[in-house]
Amino acid sequence: MSGEPVRYSPRVRELFATLPGGGALAPGKGVVVHGEAAALDRGAWVRFEARVAQGRVLEIAFGAWGCPHTLAAAALEAQALRGAAVAGAAPAAVRELAHEIGASTGKLGRLLVVLDAEAALLAAARAVQ
Fold it and tell me: DSSP letter string over 62-124?
């Protein structure tokens, strides 16, 4: 291997260690919607699923494949959507998300996969409301 080793910020380490929202939704009331995006050539795949009712995201979960930055970003976005009004929700700006988790510009393509999956989820949620 060549180059510098990847260093992860404390925020990435925290989110990657706990992965809040990681896994599948538990059974419950409400409509379940999905949003997915992948760029396997960039090493990223993300799928969000959410239970929505009365215009709000009641619960959200995600599955992801990729580097710790990808999984941490998915966890962070899942946390941001939990309880949000579907009509007003929007994915974060990619550079703001990168700044929050301390990701380099080389990771922006992977973070965009997270945001694309989130945008697909929100479009599906708006379609059923």
Answer: EEEES-HHHHHHHHHHHHHHTT-BTTT--PPPHHHHHHHHT--GGGHHHHHHHHHHHHHHHHH
